[in-house]
Specification:
This protein is an alpha/beta fold and about 300 residues long. The chain is built from 13 helices and eight strands. It folds into two domains: about 70 residues, no CATH class; about 240 residues, TIM Barrel, CATH 3.20.20. Helix 10 links the parallel strand 6 and strand 7. Helix 6 packs across helix 7.
């Protein structure tokens, strides 16, 4: 698929994902819900934990991801924090996993101080359970507040924070985070952003991803490279070898249900691999963003529709 055609289809999918009416209709279709189960472990933390147990048996660790974002009340933010606590309790001592959260779930959009307090609460619970913690990065309008809240929350140890390679500001943000000793998860970016904010061409995004991955291997602490792109994975492996980095100095992260063969292949080759395992009823926006990220994901979805 050409860059232009991919950009058009990606924009259409992301627009569709943002429409509440479309979400209500499509998410109720039984076939869509069934296919979503290839990419979403289930509605409950127990479903995700069982999926991670199967991954662990193949040498792949997990990242528990409670779906949902953009809450608008303190009550909903408190409820999300409680759901994270429940997920931590379910997974503790049962599977090899970390947990990831979205700041907008914890109240970032209307109460940064409250978000920081809830983030500290979840961090304490995860540490007590022996689970790692990661923080997602959402759309560009949330980036500055996310980084500020993350750095000011006084977390110890610091979670890993995602950075989106497509955003024009990301090289500067990455320098800030490296200077602060923050571990980083590098992703391409899955939100619909304008040309003034983000790189638009898929090839240019991949080149930026390669540049930032080299920077992280040179100077970053325990970076994670979230990609299914074999070319970029090969780039990371080559650069790590060139820079004398051991396989245990970084990890690859992929999405549940996508490139499962590659996840196992990398794990068997001695690399650290995690699969990002989402759960919860708010699966529709997540699924649409995953389909929009790359043409291959649409092919995975189409095969799942016909049961392959």
């Amino acid at each position: 698929m050409s860059d232009r055609l991919h950009a058009v289809s990606r924009g259409a999918l992301l627009w569709l994902g943002s429409r509440k009416n479309a979400q209500l209709v499509i998410s109720r279709v039984p076939l869509t819900r069934r296919v979503a189960r290839r990419f979403v472990a289930g509605d409950r933390a127990e479903d995700a934990t069982e999926a991670i147990r199967r991954l662990n048996a193949q040498g792949v660790d997990g990242v528990l991801n409670l779906l949902g974002e953009g809450v608008t009340t303190s009550a909903d933010a408190d409820a999300a924090a409680a759901e994270y606590a429940d997920a931590i309790a379910v997974a503790a001592g049962q599977v090899r996993t970390s947990i990831t959260l979205k700041p907008s779930q914890l109240g970032l959009l209307f109460d940064a101080a409250g978000c920081a307090a809830r983030l500290r609460q979840v961090a304490v619970q995860a540490a007590a359970a022996g689970l790692g913690l990661e923080v997602d990065m959402e759309q560009s309008s949330h980036v500055a507040a996310t980084i500020e809240t993350f750095l000011s929350a006084g977390l110890d140890p610091l979670p890993r924070l995602a950075i989106q390679a497509c955003l024009h500001r990301s090289p500067s943000d990455l320098e800030t985070l490296i200077g602060a000793g923050v571990r980083t998860r590098l992703v391409k970016g899955a939100y619909l952003e304008g040309p003034g904010v983000a790189i638009q061409q898929t090839g240019a995004i991949s080149r930026r991803y390669g540049e930032l991955s080299t920077l992280l291997l040179e100077r970053g602490a325990d970076p994670a490279f979230a990609t299914h792109d074999s070319t970029l994975i090969d780039h990371v492996v080559r650069e790590a070898r060139r820079l004398g980095r051991d396989k245990g100095d970084f990890e690859f992260q992929m999405l549940y249900g996508i490139r499962r063969d590659l996840q196992v292949e990398l794990a068997r080759a001695g690399f650290r691999v995690r699969a990002y395992v989402p759960f919860g009823p708010a699966w529709y926006p997540y699924l649409v963003r995953r389909l929009a990220e790359r043409p291959a994901n649409l092919r995975f979805f189409a095969r799942a529709l016909v049961g392959k």
